[in-house]
Amino acid sequence: MMIIQKNHIRGLASAGKRMDGRKEDDFREIKIETGVIENAEGSAKVSVGKTEIIAGVKMNIGEPFPDRPDEGILMTGAEFSPLASFEFETGPPSEDAIELARVVDRGIRESHMIDNKKLCIAEGEKVWMVFVDIHILNHDGNLLDCAALAAAAALGHAKFPKYDGEKIEFGEKTDKGLPITCKPIAVTLTKVGEKLLTDATFEEEGASDVKLTVTTKDDGNICAIQKSGSGPLAFSEIEKAFEISVRKGKELRKLLE
Amino acid sequence: MNEENKTEEKKPETAEKPQDNAQAKGLLKKEREFVIPGDKIVDTMDYLPGRNCFRKGDSVFATKIGLVGVNGRVVSVIPLNESYIPKAGDMVIGEVVDIQNNGWVVDIKSADTAYLPLSGIREFIDVSKTDLSNYYDIGDAIYAKISLATDNSTQLTMDDSRARKFKDGRILTINPAKVPRIIGKKGSMISIIKSQTGCRISVGQNGLIWIEGGDEELAIKAIGMVEKNSYLEGLTEKVSELLGYKPGEQPAEQAERSKEENVDG
């Protein structure tokens, strides 16, 4: 990224301004559309400004892990299509794609969004496996928050396929949804200059060297955090990030209703 | 570069001198009508294909999504959206992304990167004694002229009075298809924006615009408006209104400055 552009963004940030005229803790316009993929058990397309992400949920029956015989299985994967950004290349998942999938997975897992025990059909033999697949359609910054929102929306709207005890009829959905207990919301704070910005654009992320993702539950408790980037964060900044994430998390959660 | 559109459309005209326009028949689309690739625009030999058009048999077809432009007997398609294709003589804004033994690799937001060789610098550099990053370092933004553009290489040169390195300011990105409208006829649009906002502005044909000083916010608003409404007629008047500019009322010092800065832009 051009140095003059970085300096410009940092200069604006220290004056409390942003390129698109937003305040420090403002999000861009968020749109959530559910049920966009017919063949998936649950799906959602979320756009935050120009960033666009689609998430799909598939379910299947499998054997549980030996150490958790009575719990269902959750798997999250992310795909960064080269169409979404000039930064993405074809080939095996990049470091960023793995990080994104893991942070979204951690948010869902550690908040106990899905009651895993209820996914068990026969202990030690049969459990429901839930697969969440995240595809980036367009990249204009803040992929993590957008992906977490898409995953939560897709899981929230997912319905079990018809299952007669032996075979799954994937074409037919039942009315029964996943056992959802809460809605984890990820809010990423990007440090630009000395300021922490929410919902950073692609350019703002380029001018930053560290960001902190905080995932919160419905009751305002923090269930997962992730620091990415090589820059340092002071303890006071982390505390401030927690405060902002809890506050913004409450606002974003209303969009999932 | 201000006459980007004109130079291209003039060439075919001189090849066949325009005769009586009233007699030319066969135009199927109105001027500024929306077309998609493969749309038939003309079905006689009375018109010539211009930019983004081709002739097959007696007819002329569009190759891009855009609006029909008729200039004398030449029909062309003004694209709504475009990626930048380097053309010799264009001024572009680029970012230095790599330094090699005898030059710099510059990202000009095109399909391929461009190369700025040492021969493109106006002074002599002894590579064994000087570090090339003293001239242009990675991450620097430069305003350069395209000296050579072939299918497999694009070369830049700083041998132009407008070429330089940007030390301050900001970069705005717009669609390269809208650059001719930002500049306006003979630079009319850009000089109004410059004089009314007091900004120094350099426009690269690749869709990058450098802005520094003055009322940057207003300049960006004006440029955004031009980009959004580029298909409208009488856009200069609308922008003048936004910027509070009345023709003929330009203060003497501003007129002088915009004249001087037209060299830049």
Give your account of this protein's structure.
The complex is a heterodimer of chains A (257) and B (265). Chain A is an alpha+beta fold and 257 residues long. Chain A has one domain: GHMP Kinase, N-terminal domain (Ribosomal Protein S5, domain 2), CATH 3.30.230. Helices cover 27% and strands 35% of the residues of chain A. Chain A has helices spanning 3-14, 95-110, 143-157, 202-206, 235-255; strands at residues 30-34, 42-48, 51-62, 73-80, 120-122, 126-138, 159-163, 168-177, 185-192, 195-198, 210-216, 222-229. In chain A, strands 1, 2, 3, 4, 5 and 6 form a six-stranded mixed β-sheet that branches. In chain A, a hairpin with a 4-residue loop joins β7 and β8. In chain A, α2 (95-110) packs across α3. The longest helix of chain A is centred in the last third of the chain and has 21 residues, at 235-255. Chain B is of the alpha+beta class. Chain B has three domains: 4-79, Beta Barrel (OB fold (Dihydrolipoamide Acetyltransferase, E2P)), CATH 2.40.50; 91-166, OB fold (Dihydrolipoamide Acetyltransferase, E2P) (Beta Barrel), CATH 2.40.50; 170-261, K Homology domain, type 1 (Ribosomal Protein S8, Chain: A, domain 1, 2-Layer Sandwich), CATH 3.30.1370.10. Chain B is built from six helices and 16 strands. Chain B has helices at residues 4-15, 179-183, 188-197, 216-228, 235-243, 252-261, and strands spanning 34-35, 40-42, 48-49, 53-56, 59-62, 66-71, 74-79, 91-100, 103-107, 114-117, 141-149, 154-157, 164-166, 170-173, 200-203, 208-212. In chain B, the strands form four sheets. In chain B, strands 8, 9, 10, 11, 12 and 13 form a six-stranded antiparallel β-sheet that branches. In chain B, strands 1-6-7-3 form a four-stranded mixed β-sheet, covered by helices on one side. In chain B, β4 (53-56) and β5 form a beta hairpin. Chain B is flat. In chain B, 32% of the residues are buried. Residues 1-19 and 258-265 of chain B have low confidence and may be disordered. The chains are: A alpha+beta (257), B alpha+beta (265).
